[in-house]
């Protein structure tokens, strides 16, 4: 590492210099930054926690010592003496660059050998580029509550134990990426990992560094990418962590600054300091380089764009410059990695390259689409006509950024209700709406993210203290929903028209977006010669007939209907080709629409002479299947 560039905020390899590093001769070199300390000592378990003085090896406040008898697996801390500490002579801190930590409530760092694991994922790494033109279906997971381990007192699986279980579920259900909620060490389970003390330490809840590397390696060898949640905005206030590390505000704003604390009660990073920028961007590079993560999802980016996330307070130039420098540097180091912004603002250019005036992210969460869509489905169908264009509005701004459509953990907690529970109406009414909603989501342009449990039609809000309600699949309506999501996800992965031209205007066009009184929408997705037609019907009206004219269309091939009987719907499954009637504007067909339904068709421009099909007859949908009263009562009560 170039120490000068570190202090300027340009380093991406600070973790190779700071922290505890096993040397070729077997000794361990320890380095930490404490510019305002009077002195610093190392204490570690190998000598009974007796102080070993550290030498100040750089005028900027770098302290170093080499310990011949230290070995990987041993715990250590830095004892920092400072006249700035109130009422105490020193405070023992964990290592800001430590590669391991003990499980809470322990606070010590742990020596790790960063070269002990050997990856076998070269084939995956060689082909992971080009994601903008590929399907990206992300399964967002909290590792501790996806599935619990009956043999562990905390209910946790180790990283390497969880990998085969999670991989099998993701592959079976059509997800090609797993996004892990933050895995950096954190003191409070209830923070879900978003308030860190050990930014470079994989949380000990699920094992150690090598275990996490094996988790990623096994995913890659099974064709699954892995994305890591990263928090470059704030950190935990615990006194053994980064807070007032050397007795002064080294990583945070000064105490008399109103921006020192975030809305979550954590400390905000001060991105105007070069050493803080180097710490954070080196950390992002560390997770991609050392663990082979395929991307970074950056949390709370709005708080980096504007002071406190408030546009009224203006842009935070220091943190904006940090974002640009970090993203540009990460793309130079890892051209194929994904950089994803969780940003709810309308700041322009979040996904524009830095060299063209943007922030340099690859994707931005489309929070506007998510909020508009869920608010629409919460509404009484009687009033959906007046809110009709909540569904069409997203395509008015869509091409400004490269959007990703998220139904994340944030939408299933704190009284917001789960995705299925958000749907208008009673228990039985919610599922056809949720099925139609998800077909709309997966045929709308943009990459996809779905939080664990959503695929089960889970009714209980998520908590980190309880595993997903896997037993809910014994109820027919949930089992049918689960199989519907499976089929929808597989179609998304298989059909190029649903992803290859996500960010090209030719990839989407409205066929009909002015059926306000009937809540009907029709649009086309395409890529190269592949064309798909999507018809949505979001009202509760029975026996609707809809005539649609599709340019250059000789026939429609049904691929998926959200209300097929196999999904607990009212329409018998039929995949026979539907011939259209030629008109000047294209092929015309009249289709029956079930309430709360969505249909996906392949568009055929020609039909072989041997193919014939009867005209589509409008059939009165049969009475929807319902669970028995007992099943319904039990399913709801179980929540």
Describe this structure in words.
The protein has 639 residues and is α/β, with parallel strands linked by helices. Helices cover 24% and strands 23% of the residues. It is built from 15 helices and 30 strands. An eight-stranded parallel beta barrel has the order 10-11-14-17-18-19-20-21, surrounded by four helices. A six-stranded antiparallel sheet has the order 22-23-24-30-26-27. Strands 3, 4, 7, 8 and 9 form a five-stranded antiparallel sheet that branches. The longest helix has 19 residues, at 476-494. The two termini are 53 Å apart. Mean pLDDT is 93; it is low at 610-620 and 622-639.
Total of DSSP H or I helical runs spanning 4+ residues: 15
Strand order of the biggest β-sheet: 10-11-14-17-18-19-20-21
Outline: elongated
Biggest pleated sheet: 8 strands, parallel, barrel
Question: From the alpha-carbon coordinates, what is the Rg to the nearest angstrom?
Answer: 27 Å
Provide the residue-averaged pLDDT.
Answer: 93
Low-pLDDT stretches: 610-620, 622-639
Percent range of helical residues: 10-25%
- Share in β-strands: 15-25%
For the termini, the CA-CA separation is: 53 Å
Structural class by SSE content: alpha/beta
User: How many beta-strand elements?
Assistant: 30
């Amino acid at each position: 590492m170039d120490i000068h560039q570190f202090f300027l905020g340009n380093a991406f390899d600070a973790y190779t210099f700071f922290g505890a590093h096993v040397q070729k001769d077997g000794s361990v070199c320890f380095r930490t930054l404490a510019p305002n300390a009077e002195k610093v000592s190392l204490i570690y378990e190998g000598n009974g926690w007796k102080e070993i003085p550290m030498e100040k090896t750089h005028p900027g406040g770098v302290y170093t010592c080499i310990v011949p008898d230290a070995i990987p697996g041993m715990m250590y801390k830095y004892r920092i003496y400072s006249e700035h500490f109130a009422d105490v002579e020193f405070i023992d801190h964990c290592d800001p660059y430590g590669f391991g930590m003990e499980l809470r409530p322990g606070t010590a760092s742990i020596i790790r050998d960063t070269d002990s694991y050997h990856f076998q994922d070269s084939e995956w790494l060689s082909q992971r580029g080009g994601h903008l033109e590929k399907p990206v279906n992300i399964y967002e997971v909290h590792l501790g509550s996806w599935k619990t381990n009956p043999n562990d007192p905390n209910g946790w699986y180790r990283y390497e134990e969880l990998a085969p279980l999670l991989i099998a579920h993701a592959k079976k259900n059509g997800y090609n990426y797993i996004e892990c909620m933050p895995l950096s060490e954190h003191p409070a389970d209830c923070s879900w990992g978003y308030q860190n003390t050990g930014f470079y330490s994989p949380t000990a809840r699920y094992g150690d560094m090598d275990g996490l590397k094996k988790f990623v390696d096994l995913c890659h060898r099974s064709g699954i990418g892995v994305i890591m949640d990263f928090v470059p905005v704030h950190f935990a206030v615990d006194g053994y962590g980064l807070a007032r590390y050397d007795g002064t505000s080294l990583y945070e704003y000064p105490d008399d600054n109103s921006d020192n604390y975030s809305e979550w009660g954590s400390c905000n990073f001060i991105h105007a300091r070069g050493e803080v920028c180097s710490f954070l961007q080196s950390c992002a590079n560390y997770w991609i380089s050392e663990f082979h993560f395929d991307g970074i999802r950056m949390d709370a980016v709005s708080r980096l764009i504007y002071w406190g996330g408030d546009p009224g307070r203006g842009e935070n130039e220091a943190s904006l410059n940090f974002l640009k420098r970090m993203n540009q540097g990460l793309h130079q180091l890892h051209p194929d990695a994904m950089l994803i912004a969780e940003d709810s603002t309308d700041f322009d250019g979040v996904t524009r390259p830095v060299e063209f005036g943007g922030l340099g992210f690859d994707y931005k969460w489309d929070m506007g689409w998510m909020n508009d869509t869920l608010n629409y489905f919460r509404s009484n169908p009687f009033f959906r006509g007046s809110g009709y264009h909540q569904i069409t509005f997203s395509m008015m701004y869509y091409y400004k950024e490269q959007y990703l459509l998220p139904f994340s953990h944030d939408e299933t907690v704190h009284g917001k209700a789960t995705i299925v529970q958000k749907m208008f109406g009673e228990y039985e009414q919610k599922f056809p709406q949720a099925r139609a909603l998800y077909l709309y989501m997966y045929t709308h342009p943009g990459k996809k993210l779905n939080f664990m449990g959503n695929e089960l039609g889970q009714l209980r809000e998520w908590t980190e203290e309880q595993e997903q309600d896997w037993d809910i699949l014994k109820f027919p309506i949930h089992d049918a929903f689960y199989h519907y999501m499976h089929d929808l996800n597989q179609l998304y992965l298989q059909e190029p028209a649903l992803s290859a031209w996500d960010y090209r205007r030719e990839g989407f066009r409205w066929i009909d977006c002015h059926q306000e009184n009937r809540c009907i929408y029709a649009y086309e997705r395409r890529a190269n010669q592949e064309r798909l037609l999507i018809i949505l019907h979001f009202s509760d009206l029975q026996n609707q007939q809809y005539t649609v004219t599709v340019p250059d269309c000789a026939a429609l091939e049904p691929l998926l209907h959200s209300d097929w009987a196999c999904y607990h719907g009212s329409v018998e499954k039929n995949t026979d080709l539907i011939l259209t009637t030629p008109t000047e504007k294209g092929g015309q067909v009249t289709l029956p629409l079930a309430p709360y339904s969505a249909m996906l068709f392949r568009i055929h421009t020609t039909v072989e002479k041997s193919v014939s099909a009867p005209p589509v007859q409008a059939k009165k949908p049969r009475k929807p299947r319902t669970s028995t009263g007992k099943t319904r009562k039990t399913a709801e009560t179980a929540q």
